[in-house]
Design a protein that fits this description.
- Helix content is about 35%, strand content about 20%.
- It has about 230 residues and is α/β, with parallel strands linked by helices.
- Strands 3-2-1-4-5-7-6 form a 7-stranded mixed β-sheet, with helices on both faces.
- Bound molecules: S-adenosylmethionine.
- S-adenosylmethionine (SAM) binds next to helix 1 and helix 2.
Length: about 230
């Protein structure tokens, strides 16, 4: 199954909204840290339901938001969730970003970057479209230190890149981005049942669930264009 088919089927079955609900727990903290100023242009890579741009329009009054997604059904749904004329949705692949050199102030991505089939090239594309001093806020839950995430690859036919924290930093630098910050954002909102509730349908041991959400959570790497 292609990425387009896979994610179109997710959108058609309402998983876009389910992802929004779950990812918001940590994505909102990453978004709150972005040095976005009123009137600026932000691109959201792998936008899903488009919630990140809706939030940035409300809180930071960004001028333009472009939600890029490779799955037409995702982009179609995202467009239906807003009537804001200053947010647009674009169907395109991470390999070839349809924006002019230096035309974007900031790029955000939550739980999507690791689907890039040539991630260094995608980082080079991000660097190309960012203006000097523009930032890339890259948030992922699927990464090496987050051991509970490793099994996700078995459930999806698209190859996923599982880097560790250092590999993210090295890749950003290889693509010409400075690394301004890197840390993990714990998910403190997800309900973790008491020990006697385990095993659950999803978790064998409570410790594994605590590690997944509270210890590791979301890895945020922030790149800055020179
Ligand atoms: C796990 S979802 C995350 C969606 C949203 N950012 C969120 O936090 O809920 C990943 C998204 O990336 C998109 N995607 C995956 N690979 C892509 C690619 N190579 N090019 C463009 N979009 C891609 C998918 O269609 C999907 O909407």
């Amino acid at each position: 199954m292609s990425a387009r088919e896979e994610f179109d089927s997710w959108a058609a079955s309402g998983r876009d909204k389910g992802m929004e609900d779950r990812h918001w727990h940590t994505a909102k903290h990453a978004l709150a840290r972005m040095p976005v100023e009123a009137g600026e242009t932000v691109v959201d890579l792998g936008t899903g339901s488009g919630y990140a741009l809706r939030a940035l329009r409300e809180t930071n009054a960004i001028g333009r938001g472009y939600g890029l997604d490779g799955a037409p059904q995702m982009a179609h749904n995202a467009a239906a969730y807003t009537d804001d004329d200053d947010i647009s949705f674009v169907v395109a692949d991470f390999d070839d970003l349809p924006f002019a050199d230096g035309s974007v102030d900031h790029v955000f991505s939550m739980e999507a970057f690791y689907y890039a089939q040539d991630p260094i090239h995608t980082l080079e594309e991000i660097r190309r479209i960012l203006r000097p001093g523009g930032t890339f806020y890259c948030a992922v839950n699927y990464y090496e230190e987050n051991e509970a995430s490793h099994e996700w690859q078995a459930n999806i036919s698209i190859p996923m890149t599982r880097w560790d924290r250092q590999q993210y930093r090295e890749a950003f630098r290889e693509a010409g981005l400075y690394v301004a910050q890197q840390d993990t954002i714990a998910d403190r909102e997800i309900d973790i049942p008491p020990a006697d509730a385990f095993p659950t349908d999803d978790w064998e041991h409570r410790e594994e669930m605590v590690a997944r959400y509270r210890t590791w959570g979301t890895l945020l790497t922030v790149g800055v264009a020179p």
